[in-house]
Design a protein that fits this description.
This protein has two helices and no strands. By secondary structure, it is an all-alpha fold. The protein has one domain. It is elongated and about 40 Å long. The protein starts with a helix and ends with a helix.
Length: 48
Amino acid sequence: MSDNKGIAIGLAIGVGVGVAIDNIAVGIALGMVFGLIYDRRQKDNAEE
């Protein structure tokens, strides 16, 4: 099982963005998207 560092980072960013824009749900959604992209890129880099 791969480590879910991207999701943890995404959650942290999401909460920060959510507080900044006063809408935590939107912030977490954006953070999750970032986290999934981050995980995918880490996986791609590891395979090379």
